[in-house]
Specification:
Blueprint (H helix, E strand, L loop, with lengths): L1 E2 L8 H5 L6 E5 L7 H12 L3 E7 L34 E4 L2 E7 L3 H16 L7 E8 L4 H7 L1 H11 L4 E6 L21 H18 L12 E6 L16 E4 L7 E7 L4 E7 L17 H6 L4 E7 L8 H8 L18 H15 L4
Parallel strand pairs: 2-3, 2-6, 3-5, 6-7, 7-8, 9-12
Antiparallel strand pairs: 1-9, 4-5, 8-12, 10-11
Helix pairs in contact: 2-6, 3-5
């Protein structure tokens, strides 16, 4: 399943026209002032959506689903690119845009601040239609990076909270400020950040156009992970319109290995395509793996994920439970736990807070 965006560079109207105006939260793990997220935010607004951006004050890449809130009311150091000075509040509004907010915390913490504080305080929304993360600087291909990425962690945090979420990751590495985005590259083409944003807006608008009025953009508990190849617009047009391909997370995906250097006596990581990581269990096994699609040429991947990590109800899963009997018993619908869910939640939350270290 694929479609081309070759027409995306014809006119601005054809790119950004959306018949449905959505209420959208934008975030990422590269920081509130990074080029990719600001271009995405800008073009979503140009498409007619009501958008608020809430992201970390500095680069918080690799934080995964870690939700950490600062214990300092002010910034101990300046923000990325020196936009917000040291000593400013740890949460605040961008000095040039009232719909852009920074926070000194992890990406998933920013997700919850957006949902629980920014939207109720600053936006007159009856509902949050969509959460989008990124586009990240660098791809997040396969289940290993899915669990490592802060951009994806912030996105599945929104899905946890019943908000449809899409994580976007781009093949162009190199963290940079949105103030460095150019209107045209030396090749006379749009900046890679702009191309990634255009692709992302097109996918959001396609999803909105195909969703009946009043219905969710994605089923409850579902999200999308989208990865783009390296955009070549700085030097040539060989990859500026990569078609979207329906994919799965597994299939050709890499995991880490520990590599020992006998000279330095230090360890570093290497890559391995591990069988356990690439076992197709829940997904559509007829789909190609997103890693193979993106690394195989000028193509973008779109994988559907859910937040239900339970194994499927199959004979294989039943055999695992059988191997644990009689020590592990099936409840058969009988509630075995005596503690109430609310009490259990309070105990868990107290233990987690006690183990957290503020930033």
């Amino acid at each position: 399943m694929r479609f081309s965006l070759a027409a995306a560079f014809t006119t601005a109207a054809s790119i950004f026209a959306s018949s449905v105006a959505l209420n959208i939260i934008v975030s990422n793990d590269d920081g509130f002032a990074s080029a990719n997220v600001r271009e995405f935010y800008r073009l979503l607004k140009a498409s007619g959506h009501d958008v608020v951006l809430v992201a970390s004050v500095i680069d918080q890449s690799g934080q995964a689903g870690r939700s950490q809130f600062t214990v300092n009311s002010t910034l101990l150091t300046p923000s990325e690119y020196g936009i917000i000075p040291a000593g400013a509040p740890s949460f605040g509004m961008d000095p040039t845009d009232p719909d852009v907010f920074y926070y000194n915390g992890t990406p998933q913490a920013c997700t919850y601040i957006a949902i629980d504080y920014v939207v109720p305080t600053y936006k007159n929304w009856s509902t949050i239609d969509l959460f989008v993360g990124g586009p990240n600087f660098g791809t997040n291909l396969g289940p290993f990076l899915y669990t490592l990425s802060g951009t994806i962690g912030g996105t599945y945090g929104a899905v946890y909270r019943s908000i449809p979420g899409i994580a976007f990751s781009a093949g162009n590495n190199g963290q940079r400020s949105y103030t460095n985005v150019t209107s045209a590259t030396p090749a006379g083409l749009p900046d890679p950040a702009t191309v990634n944003a255009q692709l992302s807006v097109s996918l959001v608008n396609q999803l909105a156009a195909n969703t009946p009025p009043g219905q969710r953009l994605l089923p409850l508990g579902y999200g999308l992970s989208v990865n783009y190849p390296f955009i070549t617009s700085v030097t040539n047009d060989s990859c500026i319109s990569p078609p979207f391909v329906a994919t799965r997370l597994t299939g050709g995906a890499i995991a880490d290995t520990a590599v020992f250097n006998a000279t330095t006596k230090l360890f570093s990581y290497g890559d391995i395509v591990a069988d356990g990581l690439n076992q197709c269990i829940n997904g559509d096994c007829s789909l190609p793996g997103e890693t193979l699609v993106v690394n195989g040429g000028c193509q973008s991947s779109v994988s559907v994920f859910t937040v239900d990590y339970d194994a499927p109800n199959t004979n294989t899963t039943a055999a695992v439970f059988t191997s644990l009997e009689p020590l592990v018993q099936r409840s058969n619908g009988t509630v075995l736990a005596k503690r109430s869910p609310t009490a259990a939640l309070r105990v868990r939350a107290k233990a987690q807070r006690a183990n957290r270290v503020g930033i």
